[in-house]
Amino acid sequence: ASIPSGTLASERSCGPRKRRGRLGRGGGEPQALASRLPRGPHDREDAKRSQRGASDLAKQENKITERNLNMEATGTDEVDKLKTKFISAWNNMKYNENELLPVSSGCTIEDHVIAGSVEEFRKDFISRIWLTYREEFPPIEGSALTTDCGWGCTLRTGQMLLAQGLVLHFLGRAWTWPDALNIENSDSESWTSNTVKKFTASFEASLSAERELKTPTISLKETIGRYSDDREMQNEIYHRKIISWFGDSPLALFGLHQLIEYGKKSGKKAGDWYGPAVVAHILRKAVEEARHPDLQGITIYVAQDCTVYSSDVIDKQCTSMASDNTDDKAVIILVPVRLGGERTNADYLDFVKGILSLEYCVGIVGGKPKQSYYFAGFQDDSLIYMDPHYCQSFVDVSIKDFPLETFHCPSPKKMSFRKMDPSCTIGFYCRNVQDFKRASEEITKVLLF
Predict the structure, then answer these.
(1) What is the dihedral angle through the alpha carbons of 305, 310, 311, 313, rounded to the nearest 10 degrees?
(2) CB of 162 within 8 A of CB of 418?
(3) Residue 53: inside a domain, yes or no?
(4) Looking at the record, which segments are called Disordered (predicted)?
(5) How many CB atoms lie within 10 A of CB 343?
(6) Is residue 424 annotated as part of the catalytic site, yes or no?
């Protein structure tokens, strides 16, 4: 959806114009007549005054022309802003069309089978880090883009998979966000109304050159103040640290700006479509290049031709950054696969459900054609997912007390397996070599099922 070119542009007449003579401007009938008249002393004074008047008039016309050009340029900027807001609103309304999950029994996320507790399921789901389209972030290098609406969804789902791996690595499988249930659950109607309100308010703010500042409802000080021990406080610090690594700024280790930079070696640039396999290699490069001390104990292995070579994985895990460090590295294994030809083969349903049931699985980067989702679990023959196609405003994660709410999804969604695009990337997390060996055994059982 787009606004037709020139809809809001200023109209211009294309017909012939009649020339109007002006004193001191040349080419008009009055000037030609004046040049033939005899000039006495008074005539010369009148002529000088006329020339000064013509000069002043020319200056005024130049100022008016310059002002009109500036207004026209500003109008173009406003059209661009309107287009951006319209695209954001359009993506958000498309986001609302996806089916909301009626939370009930039989939901599975990793190895957690939710037998009947709706609250348990919501807390587990909302605790996952949700990374969506953003707007108004710093321009991506080499482009003027300040939003990834319409093209960045696979990068976002890849970020979500990596974020889940980091949550398992630093916080453990039992961790849940203490404030998960404080986020208001939203149905489709409220999402839509919020989208319309946001579009209207955002456009009005852009016209008045103002920017709405949101006050976080859950502050770091308030949250840490509720913790009963140092462990919980440490978890909250890592929770925020992980999210900050995915911030939309050039300095964020796994932010959109950095991922696009690494994607250039694959022939990709900002605004391009990224497939699940390409994103897998971009994530591997991003983790390899990360120089943060906390990230030296984790690596990424990307399978080639759907094959995981155990010796290569173990070699990666046993490679130490320092000679005195003998601990195994944790590894996130990414396996790009294709589950059929043009459409996903229905025979793979049990395989996908089996993979998502494993405690080692950190999700699947997949989706529908040209729409990437992060699959986190399943219910019956439907896949439970997090949707990145919701455009939110830029959040400065460098601020100590940045708001967390927009990084956690309040409403799970589901999609029929038969709608799944066959191209996807499956992720696994193994804390050490022994963990990898156990995971290999469990994955083999699923493959032989």
Answers:
(1) 80
(2) no
(3) no
(4) 1-62
(5) 13
(6) no
Per the annotation, the verdict on 430 as an active-site residue is no
Query: Which pLDDT belongs to residue 447?
Result: 87
Contact in structure between 58 and 25 (CB atoms under 8 Å): yes
Using CA atoms, how far apart are residues 343 and 421, in angstroms rounded to an integer?
A: 6
User: Is 387 considered catalytic here?
Assistant: yes
Asked if the model's pLDDT at residue 185 lies above 80, the reply is no
pTM of this prediction? Answer: 0.72
Tokens in use for 160? 């979500």
Task: Pick the more confident residue, 255 or 265.
Answer: 255
Are the CB atoms for 351 and 291 separated by under 8 Å?
A: no
In a domain, 99, yes or no: yes
CA–centroid distance for 278 within its chain: 17
> What is the arithmetic mean of pLDDT over 294-317?
95
Backbone angles phi, psi at 301, to 5 degrees: -120, 130
Question: Which residue type is seen at 72?
Answer: E
* Residue from 169, 239, 389, 408 carrying the catalytic annotation: 389
Q: 83-129: per-residue pLDDT in tens?
A: 555 555 545 545 555 555 554 445 666 555 554 578 888 999 999 99
**Of 179, 387, 421, 435, catalytic:** 387
Among 153, 361, 409, 430, which one carries the catalytic annotation? Answer: 153
| Alpha-carbon torsion (150, 155, 157, 159), positive or negative | negative
HEC secondary structure over the chain:
CCCCCCCCCCCCCCCCCCCCCCCCCCCCHHHHHHHHCCCCHHHHHHHHHHHHHHHHHHHHHHHHHHHHHHHHHHHHHHHHHHHHHHHHHHHHHHHHHCCECCCCCCEEECCEEECCCHHHHHHHHHCCCCCCCEECCCCCCCCCCCECCCCCHHHHHHHHHHHHHHHHHHCCCCCCCCCHHHCCCCCHHHHHHHHHHHHHHHHHHHHCCCCCCCCCCCCHHHHHHCCCCHHHHHHHHHHHHHHHHCCCCCCCCCCHHHHHHHHHHHCCCCCCCCCHHHHHHHHHHHHHHCCCHHHCCEEEEECECCECCHHHHHHHHHCCCCCCCCCCCEEEEEEEEECECCCECHHHHHHHHHHHCCCCEEEEEEEECCEEEEEEEEECCEEEEECCCCCEECCCCCCCCCCCHHHCCCCCEEEEHHHCCCEEEEEEEECCHHHHHHHHHHHHHHHCC
Q: Which domain holds residue 117?
A: 73-447
Is pLDDT larger for residue 184 or for residue 22? 184
Domain count, the chain: 1
- Report if residue 371 sits inside a domain: yes
The reply to whether 45 falls in a domain is no
